[in-house]
Specification:
The protein is of the alpha+beta class and 107 residues long. 35% of the residues lie in helices and 31% in strands.
């Protein structure tokens, strides 16, 4: 989901269970974030996960995203409202010196 004003975009992912727990999704997300910030000049990236999906939370944290606290959010999944957690990363946090150590591996 891309906002036309280029302020933010939201992404989602599904990983085949045979390839989980290898760091592939976190690496793909880091590369996507780098591209979105450097090439498209977006200000924020967003992703959500089911609040019970601990593995997705770990993936987003490993990719450098941060839990956005606030109102509970829900999404419709197979006709049911599911509580979810929202993770974000803005370009200023991504460019900070502490975050840059994470990105150097990709260059």
């Amino acid at each position: 989901n891309i906002q036309t004003d280029k302020q933010s975009c939201e992404f989602s992912y599904i990983m085949n269970p045979a390839y989980q727990r290898r760091g592939l999704t976190a690496e793909a997300i880091r590369r996507l974030i780098k591209y979105v910030f450097e090439e498209w000049k977006f200000k924020t990236v967003v992703a959500r996960c089911n609040q019970e999906n601990i593995n997705s939370e770990h993936v987003m944290l490993a990719a450098g995203m941060h839990l956005k606290k606030g109102d509970k959010e829900y999404w419709s999944f197979h006709g049911k409202e599911v509580a979810c957690k929202r993770y974000e990363l803005n370009n200023k946090a991504w460019e900070s010196p502490s975050e840059q150590a994470t990105h150097k591996e990709e260059d």
